[in-house]
UniProtKB/TrEMBL annotation:
Signal peptide: 1-22
Pfam families the record matches: SBP_bac_6
Keywords: Signal
The species this protein was found in: Celeribacter baekdonensis B30
Protein name in UniProt: Putative periplasmic-binding protein
Length: 346
């Protein structure tokens, strides 16, 4: 999902044809590959008989450009960092949250400040955590008790960050004492940028996808990483001695994606609400978790049990959390420009 969340582009295992369902011509969902999995849409199928129709994109700027150029769909997936850019493009219609059955059960921390609004452009649908992944055989727990581990000369050349502006700045804001980037001041932005600039020489590389990160850890090239939660259970399953520190003194972050309602949509508005209601249903928590995603529905999360959440790196924690909520276009562009310069050594 954007370079930010390629996450489960590789999980498109259950094709619609294999599931034995036709595609509903009354609803077209523009999405990341993998989210057509019929297991995610059982409530929609129960009500409408078929799965929705899907069209796919690989990166969010590509998706936005296609929509602005005239491609028509009813609903689209997008990650939070891009939302304001999509809103400003004029292609979105606000959701009527009174028609979203489980809206009151959504985690308020993932909704932002506007939780009481009657309408919203962005409804969170899936999330994951980003924290310190480390080799427990080589790195003592006390060394990862703080995000300042990325400054330690001891691990110079054996650390990595995501090649993604949102994840990198989430880390840098936390490390410099900011837990809400929506309200970041110029001084907080500069402090985060300076922190990333100081960390840059210590890194072996910037990882681009979870498979690359797993390989870097498995070979021992990297001992400490800022990583998505999916890396944790994957490497536990491979019997690698991986730790996942979400409770560093300064905290950890949550990435967040959701669905937007597209303006002048060709299909059924009622079925768009059937889609979002089905996706957010309590019963959808288990299939989403099996694919590596958390549901923002707190009642749904509660059905999974504490151990399931711990195993996935999504358990409640007693530490600061920076939710990667939508930010202003101006701030995101400043971060993107600064991040490219930092990676180039400036």
């Amino acid at each position: 999902m954007n370079s930010f969340k390629l996450l489960c582009a590789s999980t498109a295992l259950a094709t619609l044809a294999g599931a034995g369902f036709a595609e509903d011509a009354d609803l077209l969902v523009f999405d990341y590959s993998g989210f057509e999995n019929a297991d995610f849409h059982t409530k929609y199928i129960e009500k409408n008989g078929d799965v929705p129709s899907f069209a796919f994109f690989g990166e969010e700027d590509e998706a936005l450009q296609k929509l602005v150029s005239g491609f028509k769909a009813d609903v689209s997936h997008v990650c939070a960092g891009s939302v304001m850019k999509w809103v400003e493009s004029g292609i979105l219609e606000a959701w009527d949250t009174s028609k979203i059955t489980d809206y009151a059960n959504l985690d308020s921390n993932l909704l932002g400040a506007d939780t009481a609004a009657a309408t919203s452009y962005f409804i969170p649908s899936d999330f994951g955590s980003t924290a310190i992944a480390y080799n427990m055989d080589e790195v003592p727990a006390e060394d990862v008790a703080s995000l300042q581990v990325f400054k330690k000369p001891k691990y110079e050349g054996r650390m990595t960050l995501p090649d993604n502006v949102d994840d990198a700045y989430a880390l840098a804001y936390l490390a410099t004492g900011t837990t809400n980037w929506q309200n970041a001041t110029d001084e907080q932005f500069e402090a985060a940028s300076d922190w990333l600039r100081e960390v840059h020489p210590n890194l072996r590389t910037y990882w681009t996808d979870p498979g690359e990160l797993a390989q870097l850890l498995a070979t021992g090239e990297v001992l400490v990483a800022w990583a998505w939660n999916e890396t944790y259970p994957t490497m536990v399953g491979e019997e690698f001695p991986i730790g996942f520190q979400r409770q560093a003194t300064e905290g950890s972050s949550l990435w967040l994606c959701g669905y937007v309602n597209l303006k002048d949509a060709p299909g059924s508005e009622d079925k768009a609400y059937d889609f979002i209601n089905g996706f957010l249903d309590v019963a959808n928590a288990a299939p989403l978790m099996e694919a590596g995603y958390g549901t923002p529905n707190l009642k749904g999360l509660a059905t999974l049990g504490d151990q399931t959440l711990i195993d996935a790196g999504l358990e409640p924690i007693d530490a600061p959390i920076l939710a990667q909520l939508p930010m202003s276009i101006e701030l995101r562009e400043k971060q993107s420009e600064a991040f490219e310069k930092i990676k180039a050594g400036f």
